[in-house]
Amino acid sequence: MTVQHHYWQGSFIGDEEAGRRLAELPAAVEAALASELDTETVLAACDALAAALRDPAHPVHARLAAHLPEGEDPALLAELGGHLDRRELTRKLRSELGGATPGRLHRADPRETVYEAWAPVGLVTHIAPGNAATVAPLSIVEGLLAGNVNVLKTSGADTLLTQHLMAELAALDPSGALAARVVVLRFSSSRQDWLRLMCAPADVVAVWGGEAAVEGVAAHVPAGCRLVEWGHRISFAYLTEETWSRPETLEALADDVCLYEQQACSSPQVVYLDTEDRDALFVFAERFAGVLAARPPAAGAASPDGQDAAEAAELTTTELVARLEEHLGLTRVFSAPDGSWRVMADTRSPLTASPLHRSVWVKPLPRKRLIATLRPMRRYLQTAGLAGSPAEVAELARTALAAGVTRVTPVGAMHAGYAGEPHDGVYALQRYSRRVAVQADPGAFASVACLDDLARPVVLPAPTGPLVGKEDVQEPGRRLARADAELYFRSGGSTGAPALSVFSYDDYDTQMHAAARGLLAAGYDPVGDRTANLFYCGSMYGSFISFFSVLERLGGVQLPLSAGPDHRATAQALIDHGADTLFGMPSYLWQLLHAEGDALRAYGGLRKVFYGGEHFTREQQHTLRDRFGIEVIRSITYGSTDLGPLGYQCTESSGGVHHLHADLHCMEILELEEDRPVAPGETGRLVFSTHARRGQRLGRYVIGDLGREVPGRCPCGRHSPRFELRGRTGDVMRVATYFLNHRQLQELAEGPGGHRGELQVRLDGGEAQERLTVRVERTGTTDTGRLREVLLTGCGELRSAVSEGMLELVVEAVDGADLDRSPTSGKLLAVVDARGRA
Predict the structure, then answer these.
(1) DSSP designation for 609
(2) What is the pLDDT of residues 639-681, one digit of tens each?
(3) 395: exposed, middle or buried (C-beta count within 10 Å: 0-12, 13-18, 19+)?
(4) Alpha-carbon distance 150 to 135, whole Å?
(5) Given CA atoms 145, 146, 151, 155 in this order, what sign does their dihedral have?
(6) How far apart are CA 686 and CA 707, in angstroms?
(7) How far is CA 742 from CA 678, 690, 731, 792, in A?
(8) How far apart are CA 562 and CA 540, in angstroms?
(9) Which residue ranges form the domains of the chain, and what is each CATH number?
(10) What is the pTM of this model?
(11) pLDDT at 804 over 90
């Protein structure tokens, strides 16, 4: 039976088949690159694998544990899981590529129709080392995050851990996109023909290892191909006189030396003292030797007898030469009787590599000579662990960086890293990517914020799990952990009890950029528009702050006035500062425009209104256009305090029709009475699942709104799904055994009834029958008798309930100020159900 050492695009194969496929590698790469790879696909699969790796009882954990190198601690799998966690990978994407969706062509400057993105280079060939089990799979994941096809070579002596780990990752992606982008081969470097076939079509070759390994691979790298060297590096500690005699400094230094037995590139091989005093050097070396002597051997560390012959010879030779030089007064050696550690004090400053295994050089190096001494070794320098006063650390950090160091840490934290940290002075994801740009015609693309919206639909994993609502999200078990809870928004309680919605700043930034793109699609012009932010800034502050942030990201001119009772002062500010665009809630804007109608009509400068929280009726929009000359009236966004922006209007949208923010959310439309999808085109409950949140899962959130899917592709050209809002679930009233919809009554009043203004429904109980009162805002032409006849004629359910004697219908005209509104947001209450009141 053929041994299947290789994983090729979803299947395990043997040597003969691998050789055949290698000869056809260019065609396989081209086929894989023909389809896009969404970053969310990578994140979702990695996050699922991370959870399995951290759970010792998970079947995936058990399967992969069988492929760990001999003697390797199973905790390695949990360590890998930590690196593959969505939180860590998202931080890496943000740090290295500027955002969680770096491949989408967004406007680099919202005021210009120039679109930039990070694009994959194509094929990344990875040459992995044989002594670090986590390096190979993580290198492939970096290539996948950048959207590339990846071919990786492991050592001929390695286990099949990487192959099986990639197979498990691919199995968690139902689309098959990840499997198509991964090939893992195991063979000896002596097979130069295979190495050549791997490198020939590559756009980037990433090689891990020393100079000999890099040179061996470089010979196969074609012209124009980027060679990324992840070679061996050397690190050192630097101690000032103020710190080197402190016991805590010596203990921290010993931590850095003993952790990983100096096998990591960040391990200190040399300890430099900021001195020229030979005696101080030797005294320190003796004290530090005492600290090392007190340390127990690391768990699993090889004994001196267990080291291979080459390592043992290097240790013996290095110590012997140092002891011989003691007779010249150049060195002093302190070592363990069993050879498990050694401290070699050397009066000469040049950097000297250590033979490792707790073997440390101690050398003098006054800070004035630091650059001259270290710069010749700049290609090999990595970490400098510094101990000194804050002022000394600040000065020495700058000097060490100038000498060629790429990392500076405190002594005791030389191995500590953070998500998104540069590796050897560069960002890996940028090395595996290209920065690309598209310049578009400003006239044709004025409202296009993202080119990808016109090119293809976004495909996100299908939502699963139970339905949840605001009450569920407020439960303690679902709240954000304190580490992620950075921004608190109080919902206004306009449709329920006030509650807190909590976000991380990263999530808030993602949402504000999405809302900004939606505003551009709706016709906002960040170059020409002068905007007054007239959302409320009291207890209902979320919209005001959010759209302040949106305009900041768009670079738009704004007057953050906020909604207030002094309409005259507000109108005068609009006139004085030349505002032509208004942001706000319809109920407030309607009051402002009518209270200061004469002054604002005389000004004549208002051109655009972007509203949120409620809807302008069709007749109200006619009034705004006819009486105030307003040309653009659109929804500023559709969203909620918990979920953020959910939908946006384009220049082809009207009424309640919105596009879904498909790069952030999935949408379902479910029946009113049962949790199953409605028939195409039917109205149902809107349910959203958001994917772009840190530390919080908001899946299948029942937002409380009704809507229907709008079929077909929008005339604007965007692929994102469209839906039409059809009111709140609370706006569907169960009255006298019939279901009545506030939206239908409003449309009848506006259309056949000719009503211009707000409309509210009030329900009251009674002994013999219920009462439904339609309260309309009084205008000079309001005819309540006609409106009553229109409602009875147009709504069959209402007519039946009245004719059967189960319902009394009343239509009354009132002043707009007398309509019931939310005390916190000022939002008009569409339905006031008073039947349950005493």
Answers:
(1) E
(2) 988 899 999 999 999 989 999 999 999 999 999 888 999 999 9
(3) middle
(4) 14
(5) negative
(6) 6
(7) 20, 29, 5, 14
(8) 11
(9) 6-231 (3.40.605.10), 234-410 (3.40.309.10), 523-635 (3.40.50.980), 736-833 (3.30.300)
(10) 0.83
(11) no
